[in-house]
Structure formats: structure tokens, C-alpha cells
């Protein structure tokens, strides 16, 4: 592998405690609480932080137990019931189709509008959702020096809901955006793959290029299992050089809510 992984243990985040991590496959409150009893003696070090160097100035930070499990379920329930989720049509390869997940957008007043896939979501105010301010505070405390002023929320109702390969490389985020992503509910795979080089992109049609990307070299792909209460941060040139996705998964039988905090340049 060309990338390097560093493990760090960091100080407390509000709400995080020393609970054990559920085993892979945990997808509901009931499953998680059953596993908790069985795994009480296998607690990992508190708030382990894994740093993956993707090379060329790109980096991913993964904190599997960012929020304590009970607190994370409390926040999940609030978000599931309170957020005005919508599933609007988006433009995919020239055709309109329902977005394969529910979304909502929250941002500071006066920022440049977010536009993607032919869609311009209305920006809600943080004041409408006090819990989002609590989560934002926890993220800011975990990432000193970072500042986020907007949030895209995603709700995946089950394993059919997904997000396809893309990069959050819209100009309103600048050349090196930092994106902090918090997961609640059903764990899902989060994949990263290197974007094609200019030579690869120039040597064939769009469809051919997509097929080639599916067989990218193993060292140019990474996979993270995003569990309930976890935090994943993409930094540096990750959006310029890499694409990410949350693929369909038959084993994901209950909802997942994901919050991606971003900084819109002002
Ligand atoms: O749900 C996730 O973990 C990723 C969401 C995402 O890629 C996006 O909102 O751009």
C-alpha cells in the first residue's frame, strides 16, 4: 500500500465515553445493546483516531467512537423525527431521477448557494435545530482550528439508499476543503478511490473511463466501516484527487443518518 496509517489516542469529546465498539454488522439499537453486554471486556482505547495518509497532500482521519452510543441514539432519534427530509429529483448522466437518499441542507445566512446535480437545496437556519448546534460544537472541539459553516444531511432508509462515486469539489468550498462526516444508526461502508489521471480520462469515452475506474489498482482504493457515533474527516487535496461513495448494501436493514459539515468560502 502506498498510504500510511497512524493511530493516535486523543482527549475527550463531549458525549464520548469508554464504551466498547459493536462488532461489524450491528445495524439497530437492539443489535447494538445485545453486543454491548457480550463485549464489555473488549473495550478499545478511548477515542482512537486513525490517520490515513493518501499521498500528495490528501488525508483521512477516522474516529470510530466520536460520540457515546446512547448520546448518538438520542441524536439519531431527534434528527430522524425533526429534520424536514426531502427526496428531490437530481440530474444523473443527463436524466432526472429521485435522489437515492433523503437530504436536507443547513447553512449560515448569506453564504453562496450550494448547487449539485441540477439541484439547489434551500438553506435552513441552525436556529431551527438546536441539536445540530450541539453536534457542530462537538465537531469543532474535536478538530481545533477547523471551522464549518454549512451542513448537508443525508438519511439512508435502508441498504438500497446510497450515494454514487463523486467528489465534493464544488468551487464554493475552495481548493482544499475539509469535510467532517458524522454517522448515526446503521453502519455502512464508505469507499474512496483515486480519480483517473488526465491520460486515462483522455484515452476513451466516459463509459470506458468509468469501467476502467472500477478496476483501479488495489493501492488506489480505501474502505472505512462507518459505525454509529463515528467521525470521518477528509482533508487536503482529497476532493481534488479522490472520489468517495456509500454503495448499496443488502445487509443494511435499518436507517443511517449522516451529517457532512463543510466550510463555504466567504
Ligand atoms: O453518507 C456519507 O457518509 C457520505 C455522504 C456524501 O458523500 C456527501 O454528502 O457528499
Give a structural overview.
The protein has 266 residues and is an alpha+beta fold. Helices cover 21% and strands 32% of the residues. The chain is built from six helices and 15 strands. The strands form three sheets. Strands 1-2-3-13-10-15-8-6-7 form a nine-stranded mixed sheet. The chain has a four-stranded antiparallel sheet with strand order 9-14-11-12. It starts with a strand and ends with a strand. It binds 2-oxoglutaric acid.
What keywords describe this structure?
266 residues, alpha+beta, nine-stranded mixed sheet, four-stranded antiparallel sheet, 6 helices, 32% strand, binds 2-oxoglutaric acid, AlkB-like_sf
Write the layout of secondary structure elements.
Elements: E1 4-9, H1 29-38, E2 48-55, E3 58-63, H2 69-82, E4 89-92, E5 95-98, E6 102-107, E7 123-124, H3 130-142, E8 150-156, E9 163-166, E10 179-185, E11 188-194, H4 198-202, H5 206-214, E12 221-226, E13 231-236, H6 238-241, E14 242-246, E15 256-262
The structure holds 2-oxoglutaric acid.
Short description:
Residues 1-54 are annotated as: Disordered. With 266 residues, the protein is α+β, with helices and mostly antiparallel strands. It has helices at 29-38, 69-82, 130-142, 198-202, 206-214, 238-241, and strands spanning 4-9, 48-55, 58-63, 89-92, 95-98, 102-107, 123-124, 150-156, 163-166, 179-185, 188-194, 221-226, 231-236, 242-246, 256-262.
Amino acid at each position: 500500500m502506498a498510504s500510511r496509517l497512524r493511530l493516535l489516542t486523543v482527549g475527550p469529546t463531549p458525549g464520548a465515553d469508554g464504551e466498547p465498539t459493536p462488532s461489524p454488522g450491528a445495524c439497530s439499537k437492539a443489535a447494538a445493546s445485545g453486543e454491548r453486554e457480550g463485549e464489555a471486556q473488549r473495550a478499545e482505547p478511548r477515542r482512537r483516531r486513525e490517520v490515513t495518509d493518501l499521498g500528495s497532500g490528501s488525508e483521512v482521519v477516522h474516529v470510530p467512537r466520536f460520540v457515546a452510543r446512547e448520546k448518538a441514539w438520542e441524536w439519531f432519534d431527534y434528527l430522524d423525527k425533526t429534520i424536514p427530509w426531502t427526496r428531490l429529483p437530481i440530474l444523473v448522466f443527463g436524466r432526472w431521477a429521485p435522489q437515492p437518499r433523503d437530504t436536507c441542507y443547513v447553512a449560515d445566512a448569506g453564504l453562496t448557494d450550494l448547487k449539485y446535480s441540477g439541484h439547489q437545496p434551500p438553506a435552513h437556519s441552525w436556529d431551527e435545530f438546536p441539536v445540530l448546534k450541539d453536534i457542530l460544537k462537538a465537531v469543532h472541539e474535536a478538530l481545533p482550528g477547523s471551522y464549518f459553516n454549512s451542513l448537508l444531511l443525508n438519511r439512508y432508509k435502508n441498504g438500497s439508499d446510497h450515494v454514487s462515486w463523486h467528489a465534493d469539489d464544488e468551487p464554493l468550498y475552495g481548493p482544499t476543503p475539509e469535510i467532517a462526516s458524522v454517522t448515526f444508526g446503521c453502519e455502512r461502508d464508505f469507499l474512496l478511490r483515486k480519480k483517473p489521471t488526465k491520460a486515462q480520462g483522455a484515452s476513451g469515452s466516459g463509459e470506458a473511463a468509468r469501467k476502467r475506474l472500477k478496476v483501479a489498482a488495489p493501492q488506489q482504493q480505501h474502505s472505512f466501516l462507518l459505525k454509529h457515533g463515528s467521525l470521518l474527516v477528509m482533508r487536503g487535496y482529497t476532493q481534488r484527487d479522490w472520489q468517495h461513495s456509500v454503495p448499496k448494501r443488502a445487509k443494511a436493514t435499518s436507517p443511517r443518518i449522516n451529517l457532512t459539515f463543510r466550510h463555504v468560502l466567504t
